[in-house]
Amino acid sequence: MDYSMFCYQCEQTVGGKGCTKVGVCGKTSDIAALQDLLIYQIKGISCYANELIKKGEKIDKDIVSFVENSLFTTLTNVNFDGDVHEQLLRKSQEIKQSLRSKISSCENFSEEATYNLSETRNQMLEDAKRAGIMYDQNLDPDIRSLRQTIIYGLKGVSAYGHQARELGYYNDQVDEFYFRALAATCDENLTVEDLITLTLKTGDMSVAVMQKLDEANTTIYKNPAPHKVNVNIKKGPFIIVSGHDLKDLEMLLKQTEGKGINIYTHGEMIPCHGYPELNKYPHLVGNFGGAWQDQQKEFDNIPGCILMTTNCLMKPRDSYKDRIFTTSVVGWDGVKYIGKTESGEKDFSEIINKALELGGFKEDQEPKEILVGFGHNATLSNAPAIIDAVKSGKLKHFFLIGGCDGARSGRNYYTEFATKVPKDCIILTLACGKYRFNKLEFGEVAGLPRLLDVGQCNDAYSAVRIALALADAFDTDVNSLPLSIILSWYEQKAVADLLALLSLGIKGIYLGPTLPAFLSPNVLQYLVDTFDIKPISTPEKDLASCLQIPSN
Asked: Which residues contact residue 362 at a Cβ distance below 8 angstroms, ignoring those fewer than 6 apart?
């Protein structure tokens, strides 16, 4: 099928412009087409849902969940299974028709709303051309840029919303915003100024959904506390849990109790060791490997199993394709999927039996421990000591160095930056960007660890809570604190995090390794002028700028 693929939603997009033949993430042009069409369909659903919301009607939470999961499915490195996308597309048409039947007249609705899904996959792939980002060549580039920024922000919000909903938590305002915002991206009457307002509103919703997910995690699994995690391996059968989902990890821990299986976290799951209701399981023995982009070489011929709970999945090598399992929205053609039972639980017996069969590692490595668990509750419990250290001059500056990691060159910047941070400064970190430096020794300052692991990407909310509390303590605002934010981005959760920070009025953020290709020159200039966003340069120059050290 001749589909004109174009995708620029991630940082590693080809040439910094867009993937046009196959995604750097591994998705084919057919998967890209089906994902474009799925977004097109949920835009159409949203046009009808938004109209009903205006009339005071409530949209069924199953429909909210479908739209949320569809957004999440199309996020980078989540799902590469064509059958799953086709099933979602067919379901989307059912939902669209059910909502359309509640509208008296459909004459003035957009093409996204009036389009009806074709019968066969080949016809769907042909139809997907109309859903492509660049389909309308006459569209104002700033309008296109802002529409895509909103959609990518929503994809990030959906990932956090999905995690919270799995735990039984949701935010009604966020749920309605999915429909409002997606419908707005079809509205030809909205101006650049209207869409800028909506972009920042997407940031508000990102804050709201992160707050809800924080509430869910800390209510069910209790507030994270400092906890040492072994990053070397132990003898015996094992399962590695990757992704972000705490509930999947908990279910697996319960089902593996007493079976002689070691459970390791991987990637963004490492903060789970800080939660009391998860680290109480003695067979949660440590964290395996590094960041997500190293998985192919780290999982190669591994004598155990891997469970992928959310993104970030890369194309599995044949050497471990028979021992990697997916669940939730994650999928790859030919990889075994574990779904929910009728009770809403998951049966992990197949992966458990496979792990036992493989036998695991033959011997222990010498333990090496790192410290995690500095969420807002744990960090702010040290607030008096932090405030005293700042006032006495022992603690000069805070650096938040976090975000997504990735394979492209240029990310060593973050390692170099962290190692060059002066000894009288504290580094806060979150998300998988921490793997660039989290196994290095940073020591202490004023009796506190210099490196504080705040958590997952969604724990940008924790970092904000910490910053706001410190600003209150010093009777100032966040932008006047001795705080610098150095962000690395890769996929759309980082977009949601960035929009969240901007919606809170935080300025002077350093962003890299490259600036998003979906930002048009005018939109980028607006962000620079309004929020003083700075592209990273060199660690030395940026560090001097943060600390206001005069250049030679």
From this structure: 235
Mean pLDDT of 387-395: 95
Which tens digits make up the pLDDT trace of 411-432?
Answer: 999 999 999 999 999 999 999 9
The rounded distance, in Å, linking the Cα atoms of 378 and 394 is: 21
Three-class secondary structure assignment of 478-540: HHHCCEEEEEECCCHHHHHHHHHHHHCCCCCCEEECCCCCCCCHHHHHHHHHHHCCEECCCHH
Sequence letter at residue 106: C
Contact partners, residue 104, CB within 8 Å, separation at least 6: none
pLDDT greater than 70 at residue 1: no
Class of residue 210 by CB neighbours under 10 A (exposed 0-12, middle 13-18, buried 19+): buried
Tokens of 91: 């379901």
Q: Is the bond into 513 cis (omega within 30 degrees of 0)?
A: yes
CA distance readout (Å), 484 to 186, 449, 467: 37, 18, 11
What number is the average pLDDT over the span 32-45?
A: 98
Amino acid in the structure at residue 480: S
**Strand 284-288 relative to strand 324-327: parallel, antiparallel, unpaired?**
unpaired
Q: What is the rounded (10 degree) CA torsion for 376, 377, 380, 381?
A: -160
| Residue 355 main-chain phi, psi, to 5 deg | -65, -40
Q: Bridge-partner residues for 288, per DSSP?
A: 266
Q: What pLDDT score does 355 carry? A: 98
Phi/psi of residue 441, nearest 5 degrees: -95, 120
**How far is residue 67's CA from residue 72's CA, in Å, rounded to a whole number?**
9
In this structure, what DSSP letter does residue 340 have?
A: B
Closest CA to 427 of 493, 361, 382, 484: 484
The answer to whether the CB of 226 falls within 8 A of the CB of 380 is no
pLDDT band at 190 (very low <50, low <70, confident <90, very high): very high
For the chain, the distance separating the N- and C-terminal CA atoms, rounded to the nearest angstrom, is 58
CB contact at 8 A, 144 and 520: yes
pTM exceeds 0.90 for this model: yes
Q: How far apart, in Å, are the Cα atoms of 8 and each of 13, 57, 152, 465, 500?
A: 6, 36, 10, 32, 21
Whether 398 contacts 484, CB under 8 Å: yes
Secondary structure (DSSP) of 220-260? HH-----EEEE-S--SB-EEEEESS-HHHHHHHHHHHTTTT
